[in-house]
Task: inverse folding
């Protein structure tokens, strides 16, 4: 026996809200950790450049690739993600290209603050686009803009 249609609908709405909250938390954590990896070369002080920039460079490649669409048009995003070869990732988040200097600034006194050890987090929210696709096909299911504020408890 299945659930009544109304109960299933409420259940799906709750799952969507929980999923979005988890995704936003993940984006914040990824930004914090991956930008922090830029400084994970055991520096004497946090938020300082490191010789090991693999995490930082990977973050830029995944979340700030050149040529990202500025719209939320599904066709533009499908074409773009196919060009990146990223059809295997069902959920992807992209920061705005004009925020590159702000991303770099997270590891400075003006743009970031120490979270833990060598990890720095942004003091300002970032606007991003989340693209959800069907794995393996690059068929775009959803494109939406979001804004993530830093956790005030950090």
Result:
């Amino acid at each position: 026996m299945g659930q009544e249609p109304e109960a299933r609908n409420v259940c799906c709405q709750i799952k969507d809200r929980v999923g979005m909250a988890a995704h936003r938390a993940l984006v914040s954590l990824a930004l914090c950790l991956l930008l922090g990896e830029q400084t994970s070369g055991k520096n004497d002080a946090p938020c300082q450049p490191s010789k090991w920039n693999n995490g930082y460079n990977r973050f830029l490649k995944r979340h700030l690739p050149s040529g990202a669409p500025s719209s939320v048009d599904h066709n533009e995003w499908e074409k773009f993600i196919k060009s990146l070869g990223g059809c295997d990732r069902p959920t992807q988040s992209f920061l705005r290209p004009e925020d590159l200097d702000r991303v770099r600034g997270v590891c400075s006194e003006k743009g970031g603050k120490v979270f833990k050890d060598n990890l720095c987090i942004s003091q300002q929210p970032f606007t991003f686009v989340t693209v959800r696709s069907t794995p393996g096909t690059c068929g775009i299911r959803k494109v939406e803009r979001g804004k993530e504020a830093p956790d005030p408890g950090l």
In short: The CA atoms of residues 88 and 135 lie 5 Å apart. The first strand starts at residue 91 and ends at 95. Helices lie at 5-37, 54-63, 74-84, 100-105.
